[in-house]
């Protein structure tokens, strides 16, 4: 679902130490409903809090979108002059953080991004590109675009080890080239008076979520797999106490444009047909980032039942762990990596019976406490502060950036 916070002004700056840097950011940007937009705003805020200056260029499809964007300037897709102007705006940056996804830049498979990187290169500005998608089965042109982006970027960042392995094994990228920096998140605040290592603490925590409460959130559309959770809950109708399930979020704008609210309405009908309509709530409320973190922290577990077997990065998964919540997820690549240490339970795709078994497990107070303890152990490494520091450290390790640091 859309979430936002108070975003910094068009050119973000605060007093900083002598090693402060001017950093460009190229991405979609709030209020656009897009995971990359939220990512760029949060990363920019993390950099500002360290004393750096961040100058954002927002990607738009129409000049009229500029009026609502709190950024330095926009890059209008399909407009070569706008690409050049955006590069000029960033010419005084020590380096540029470019967020890459095929669908956000103009041209076939977003190939207009190459012209922007070339203009920045001509101006002597190094580019650090974060790949938000690494397709398992790319088309020929997608592969060409992605390899050209990597070749032209001074540093390529991926957000999971599985994405790194995919670049090396399937795309032939040298192992030393991609850098793994995790997706950042706002860390939840949980009570220190609950000791999750003993049965009393576990029971106390379970009592705060009685009956057990499950949550799936994000922009809705086919492929989210929420229907499998509803089918699983129907298999657990005799479980006491009854499990409640909240589906939070609005229909994805692109889905809404082409198909309307068909998927969301079908989920409501399915819950009623299975006799659990009162146990499944649909919540389209808007929440700020602090409100969302508090909301996620209040549930028993987060469920990510995605149909995709190809997802190498999930911001919602990271947000759930950062909020200290256990996760039940289908075995998509990023979930397999993030939950491998015991912060959640993996289930096969499209398997309501396996999903029901996982839900039954998290209803056990001791199991829930063990999973939550591991999520809380992992959470601090995912903070936006830690992640933004890593970006600056990696960028500063390149010779060109070191020479340009003010």
N→C terminal distance: 39 Å
Proportion of residues in β-strands? 15-25%
Q: Please, what is the average pLDDT? A: 87
Shape: globular
Main pleated sheet: 8 strands, mixed
User: Helix- and strand-based class?
Assistant: alpha/beta
In helices, the fraction of residues equals 40-55%
Query: Segments where pLDDT lies below 50 for 5+ residues?
Result: 1-18, 401-406
Q: What's the β-strand tally?
A: 16
User: What would you report as the Rg, rounded to the nearest angstrom?
Assistant: 22 Å
- The total of helices stands at 16
Structure report:
It is a single chain. The protein has 406 residues and is an alpha/beta fold. It contains 16 helices and 16 strands. The protein has helices at 35-49, 80-89, 113-122, 140-152, 161-171, 199-208, 226-235, 253-259, 262-273, 289-297, 315-322, 333-338, 352-362, 365-378, 384-396, 399-404; strands at residues 3-4, 11-12, 22-27, 53-60, 73-76, 95-100, 127-131, 155-158, 178-180, 213-217, 244-248, 280-283, 287-288, 301-304, 327-330, 344-347. The strands form three sheets. Strands 2, 3, 4, 5, 6, 7, 8 and 9 form an eight-stranded mixed β-sheet that branches. Strands 12-11-10-14-15-16 form a six-stranded parallel β-sheet, sandwiched between helices. Strand 8, helix 5 (161-171) and strand 9 form a beta-alpha-beta unit. Helix 7 (226-235) packs across helix 13. It is globular. It starts with a strand and ends with a helix. 47% of the residues are buried.
